[in-house]
Amino acid sequence: MIDDREIWTCANILIKRYGEDAPDQAKRRAADLLAEGDEVGHAVWRRIEGTVLELLRDAPSTSDHLH
């Protein structure tokens, strides 16, 4: 199974490549793998999706002011 560090690395790559669309990309990949019968791959991509959402939620928006 993939470890947490690899999940975070994949999530960051998706965010850099797809920006705000990264969660949808991860969700689609998870769905594709499930349709192919790859339950382990599906579970990994669901974890990546969750991490992407967490990273995007925690990132300051361009309108946030840092003091």
Structure explained in plain terms:
The protein is mostly helical and 67 residues long. 73% of the residues lie in helices and 0% in strands. It is built from 3 helices and no strands. It has helices spanning 4-18, 22-35, 39-58. Helix 1 (4-18) packs across helix 2 and helix 2 packs antiparallel against helix 3. The longest helix is centred in the C-terminal third of the chain and has 20 residues, at 39-58. The N and C termini lie far apart (41 Å). The mean pLDDT is 92.
Secondary-structure element series:
HHH
Overall average residue pLDDT: 92
Helix content: over 70%
Number of strands: 0
Sheet having the most strands: none
SS-based structural class?
mainly alpha
From the N-terminal CA to the C-terminal CA, the straight-line distance is 41 Å
Total count of helical runs of at least 4 residues: 3
Range of strand content: under 5%
Gyration radius (Cα, Å) is 13 Å
Which overall shape is indicated by the principal axes computed on the Cα atoms? globular
Regions with pLDDT < 50 over 5+ consecutive residues?
A: none
